[in-house]
């Protein structure tokens, strides 16, 4: 019979092993981000087994750094190594989740959040002691990474999966309606819709000058005349019954005043208009997220970004894991009575709230 002491020792050893796995995982996440940003995974996917010098030459990078990066990838079992020939090879089964051509399954793109969040660790720790938050301006690559993230998730799935969640919407967009995207970021989703539906008119608001500049440049480069972007805090929206469709993509939980924003969205919708809200699929209480496949990651992103940027603006600090229950409560308080939650088979991370204004 196992004694209590033996059980405690086994539990302690198992936890120590988990910690080692965590440390290795954190290191691999950093190197995965580097592999994505430098294009090393894309390069390896196109090469036969090759030496570190050949990989570096093909990628246009310095061999010594590439060799050390490859060491991390080999010991992490991402890349195969032939010790006799001293060659490296990225298996196609791994490339299917690590290369740009693998979108929307390119998990390497998501690894960029780890170093991005690590860059504000000192500021967030200060907030643990003094309160407040870290403003958006401290996140140097945030909108770039978010644009890539949404580009391979929401935008890539827009026509085939996302818009069909709302019956009749595609037909309405083809005929021509007024659409607003709140917290539009770099505007990829809105520019995509503007290109697909030239008879509809699109307006995007975000309070980031950098994001709006990027959105306008992209719209101009595509020759779009039915979309406009403007720098605006969503809490100051003053439109009244102006839009047939309002969208928010992963934006409400970041707001300083999400309650005010939802009230503004309700007011801006025309009667029988639709509000489409994509946000994180989670429970409001941590006990409901114990089996969430990326629970630790999402709470980390929330603590080091979503929650703190809201608190920096004197906001509620909902965080990414505000959860389905809180979302439904706040939608009802804003005046919405008809709410339907839909999900996509290939997307375990998001809920899609289809909200009608009666």
From TrEMBL:
Top EC class for this record: transferase
Ranges where the Methyltransferase domain occurs: 174-290
Stretches assigned to the S-adenosylmethionine-dependent methyltransferase Rv2258c-like winged HTH domain: 26-100
Record has Transmembrane helix as a keyword: no
Alphabetical UniProt keywords: Methyltransferase, Transferase
Record-level GO BP terms: methylation
InterPro entries: Methyltranfer_dom (IPR025714), SAM-binding_MTase (IPR053173), SAM-dependent_MTases_sf (IPR029063), WH-like_DNA-bd_sf (IPR036388), WHD_Rv2258c (IPR048711)
The protein's name in its UniProt record: Demethylrebeccamycin-D-glucose O-methyltransferase
Source organism per UniProt: Acaryochloris thomasi RCC1774
Primary gene name: rebM_1
């Amino acid at each position: 019979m196992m004694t209590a002491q033996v059980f405690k020792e086994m539990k302690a050893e198992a936890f120590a092993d988990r910690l080692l796995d965590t440390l290795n995982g954190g290191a691999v996440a950093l190197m995965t981000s580097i592999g994505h940003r430098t294009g090393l995974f894309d390069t390896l996917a196109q090469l036969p087994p090759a030496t570190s010098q050949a990989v570096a030459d093909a990628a246009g990078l310095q061999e010594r750094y590439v060799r050390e990066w490859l060491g991390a990838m080999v010991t992490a079992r991402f890349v195969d190594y032939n010790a006799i020939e001293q060659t490296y090879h990225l298996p196609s089964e791994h490339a299917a989740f690590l290369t740009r051509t693998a979108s929307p399954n390119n998990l390497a793109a998501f690894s960029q959040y780890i170093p991005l969040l690590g860059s504000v660790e000192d500021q967030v720790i200060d907030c643990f002691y003094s309160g407040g938050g870290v403003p958006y301006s401290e996140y140097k690559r945030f909108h770039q990474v978010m644009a890539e993230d949404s580009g391979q998730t929401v935008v890539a799935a827009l026509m085939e999966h996302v818009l069909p969640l709302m019956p009749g919407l595609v037909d309405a967009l083809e005929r021509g309606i007024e659409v607003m995207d709140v917290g539009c970021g770099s505007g990829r989703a809105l520019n995509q819709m503007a290109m697909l539906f030239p008879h509809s008119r699109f307006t995007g608001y975000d309070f980031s000058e950098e994001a709006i500049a990027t959105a306008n440049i992209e719209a101009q480069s595509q020759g779009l005349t039915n979309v406009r972007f403007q720098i605006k805090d969503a809490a100051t929206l003053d439109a009244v019954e102006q839009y047939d469709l309002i969208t928010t993509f992963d934006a409400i939980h970041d707001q300083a005043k999400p309650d005010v924003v939802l009230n503004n969205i309700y007011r801006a919708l025309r009667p029988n208009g639709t509000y489409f809200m994509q946000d994180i699929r989670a429970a409001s209480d941590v006990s409901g997220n114990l089996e969430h496949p990326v629970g630790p990651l999402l709470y980390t992103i929330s603590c080091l970004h979503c929650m703190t940027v809201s608190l920096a603006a004197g906001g509620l600090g909902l965080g990414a894991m505000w959860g389905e229950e809180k979302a439904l409560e706040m939608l009802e308080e804003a005046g919405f009575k008809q709410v339907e939650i839909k999900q996509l088979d290939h997307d375990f991370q998001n809920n899609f709230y289809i909200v009608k204004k009666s």
